[in-house]
From TrEMBL:
<keyword id="KW-0479">Metal-binding</keyword>
<dbReference type="InterPro" id="IPR017515">
    <property type="entry name" value="MeMalonyl-CoA_epimerase"/>
</dbReference>
<comment type="similarity">
    <text>Belongs to the methylmalonyl-CoA epimerase family.</text>
</comment>
<feature type="domain" description="VOC">
    <location>
        <begin position="3"/>
        <end position="131"/>
    </location>
</feature>
<dbReference type="InterPro" id="IPR029068">
    <property type="entry name" value="Glyas_Bleomycin-R_OHBP_Dase"/>
</dbReference>
<dbReference type="InterPro" id="IPR051785">
    <property type="entry name" value="MMCE/EMCE_epimerase"/>
</dbReference>
<dbReference type="Pfam" id="PF13669">
    <property type="entry name" value="Glyoxalase_4"/>
</dbReference>
<protein>
    <submittedName>
        <fullName>Methylmalonyl-CoA epimerase</fullName>
        <ecNumber>5.1.99.1</ecNumber>
    </submittedName>
</protein>
<keyword id="KW-0413">Isomerase</keyword>
<dbReference type="GO" id="GO:0004493">
    <property type="term" value="F:methylmalonyl-CoA epimerase activity"/>
</dbReference>
<dbReference type="InterPro" id="IPR037523">
    <property type="entry name" value="VOC_core"/>
</dbReference>
Amino acid sequence: MEKIDHIGIAVKDLEQASKLYEMLLGVKPYKTEQVISEHVTTHFFKVGESKIELLNALNTDSTISKFIDKKGEGIHHIAFAVADIYAEMQRLKDLGFVLLNEEPKQGADNKLICFVHPKTTTGVLIELCQEIVIP
């Protein structure tokens, strides 16, 4: 793992939360994106090297909707940048971690992603993410 890429925060009202984070961080989101596979809309903020991803459910089937129903708004996941997501997934599987998907999938912010089950990471949902390089 190279570094923390971002922290994902689940929110009920994306516009309201975005305004709050604009005031808090002193910057506007640099990207808004819908991730259809995850049923979410995201706003990304960047301060220095740190990024915050606000996640809002597109529908009740979204894991974000279920997360908010169960735990309320708040930190949803911590994402780590990796150089080779396939190698990192295999390394973690070999160590006994449970992955939530067998293959990486397209995520927000031009990334391939994979989640590690929180039951194997002291209750914290971990996301692996690798920048997609377009030749």
